[in-house]
Specification:
single chain, alpha+beta, D-Maltodextrin-Binding Protein, domain 2, Dipeptide-binding Protein, domain 3, 8-stranded mixed beta sheet, 5-stranded antiparallel beta sheet
């Protein structure tokens, strides 16, 4: 089976930069804005293009620029496809397309993937993205004992990689995998320059159209265009991701003209503020973001099915979505979203029934109630959802001790160390049902039957069988109330009317700058 096709690339052109001190001044004053390129005829010639800049508002700031050792989705949001490219890329329809690989073949036994690399692709250093570089990246990851648990799990299926020739690389799997090629379109597949020896926490060494220029903690990440880019040139000289803990402040920055884009609207009830279509464009679509009320399976109470069922039935998730996210989003009942091939609407499996919830608690031995700690990151949907959940669980006799943590502390204490009973966060990786098959993941869900069902689906002999088995595994997970799936986040993006090219659906972790233009 052969995938992909060669793509043509136009030569790299450069627009004229202004001095970096002026850029710094603009950022300090909060004036970063998108300036369309213009030219003025003068004696048969034209003026040089002015510098093009783009300001993007976001909420979750990366703790570092190293996606291999920090699991936060905020890192690939900035870096994936923009700074670090992958062999293959997922488009806005969820389909795998060529990137550093112009085509690929899969052997009949689904164990060997042969990638034909795009000639001329190179890292920002000028070194080629060739077969040796791909092999070096696979070997580097396999030797790295400090990879995030997710990357370790995704990489486990890879037996090895070898260069067939300069532009052809062969990667071998230990067993067929329904997920591996999709995983390679994300953080796992990011190609790092093998010769790089700098600090990946603060700098970058990719092959994408942008490079990391600066990261000011608590404020912004600035990307500059990679002047050595091998493909279509970056459309902007500078892109600034500005971070806001207060969604209203981000909205105000957009309304005042200090932002060109709100990457994902964190206060959907503010949509009417951007109703003027002569000034703004609203993009509304789907995401992979399942907002999950995660349950720590090491908790004595939460390890009991009856307790998990009681908590699920005590929460009116439709009212929660209406209250928290202005009714925007999709109700879900398992770790799957509508764009997944195995999706099934299971949101009604455990309907809201507080009286039944009380009876289930009594059956589990908690007739007098129990106390649970709910620790959430300071993210608008998480904080608002926690308040709603605490109120509804109180009605069935469950006392909820809520604590709000900044995101880096949440990563350390909750995600890494498992210090919580319940938590709320959106899981935005594509096709992430397998998180529940990993006992070491922060939920510590240890259902061996589910793990066996999931692994059988991943390793199925053909794709159709794998999809059917994955659907059954997703339903089993819902039956067991492994978590409480609150809703799937919508993709709500606000742009200036002059900005185009934003995809309707967010199917990857990336805020992909390569499709965005400004006029």
């Amino acid at each position: 089976m052969t995938y992909g096709a060669a793509t043509s690339r136009r030569p790299r052109s450069r627009s004229i930069r202004t001095l970096s001190v002026l850029i710094g001044l603009a950022l300090a004053l909060g004036l970063a804005a998108c300036t369309p390129s213009t030219s003025s005829p003068s004696g048969g010639g034209s003026e040089p293009e002015p510098e093009r800049t783009l300001a993007v508002g976001a909420t979750l700031e990366p703790a570092s620029m190293d996606p291999w050792h920090n699991p936060a989705a905020s890192i690939p949001q900035v870096l994936l496809y923009n700074v670090y490219e992958t062999l293959v890329k997922v488009d806005s329809n969820g389909e795998i397309k060529p990137l550093l690989a112009q085509a690929w073949e899969i052997s009949p036994d689904r164990l060997t993937y042969t990638f034909h690399l795009t000639p001329g692709a190179k890292f920002a250093s000028g070194e080629p993205v060739d077969a040796d570089a791909v092999v070096a990246n696979i070997d580097r990851l396999k030797a790295d004992e400090e990879l995030t648990p997710t990357l370790k799990a995704q990489l486990a299926v890879v037996s090895g990689a070898k260069a067939v020739d300069t532009h052809q690389v062969e990667i071998t799997l230990s067993h067929p995998s329904l997920m591996w090629l999709y995983d390679m379109s994300s953080t796992l597949g990011m190609m790092l320059d093998p010769g790089y020896t700098g600090d990946l926490n603060t700098t970058s060494a990719g092959s994408g159209p942008y490079e990391v220029a600066s990261h000011i903690q608590g404020d912004s990440v600035v990307l500059g265009d990679n002047t050595n880019y091998w493909g279509n040139p970056a459309r902007f000289d500078e892109v600034t991701f500005r971070y806001f803990s207060d969604p209203n402040a981000m909205n105000a920055a957009m309304l005042s003209g200090d932002l060109d884009i709100i990457s994902n609207l964190q206060a959907p009830d503010a949509l009417p503020q951007f109703a003027d279509t002569t000034q703004y464009t609203t993009i509304s679509g789907t995401t992979n973001g399942e907002v999950v009320l995660g349950l720590n399976d090491t908790s004595k109470a939460l390890s009991k099915l009856e307790v998990r069922q009681a908590l699920t039935m005590a929460i009116n998730r439709k009212d929660l979505m209406d209250t928290v996210w202005a009714g925007q989003g999709t109700l879900i009942g398992t770790m799957s979203v509508p764009t997944d091939p195995w999706y099934e609407d299971l949101s009604g499996l455990y309907p809201y029934d507080p009286e039944k919830a009380k009876a289930l608690l009594k059956e589990a031995g908690y007739e007098k109630g129990l106390t649970l700690r709910l620790r959430v990151p300071v993210i608008p949907y998480a904080v608002k959802s926690a308040q709603f959940v605490a109120s509804q669980l109180r009605d069935i006799g469950v006392k909820v001790e809520t604590e709000e943590l900044d995101f880096s502390r949440w990563i350390d204490e909750v995600f890494t160390n498992g210090d919580y009973d319940m938590t709320i966060v959106a899981h935005v990786e594509a096709r992430d049902l397998g998180k529940f098959a990993d006992k070491d993941y922060y939920w510590h869900y240890g259902d061996e039957k589910f793990a066996a069902m999931y692994n059988a689906a991943v390793e199925a002999a053909d794709e159709d069988q794998g999809v059917a088995e994955m659907k059954a595994a997703a339903r089993y997970l819902a039956d067991q109330c492994a978590a409480i799936w609150l809703f799937a986040l919508p993709n709500l993006v606000i742009t200036k009317a002059t900005v185009t090219g934003i995809p309707q659906n967010a199917t990857t972790l990336s805020f992909d700058l390569t499709t965005i233009t400004s006029r």
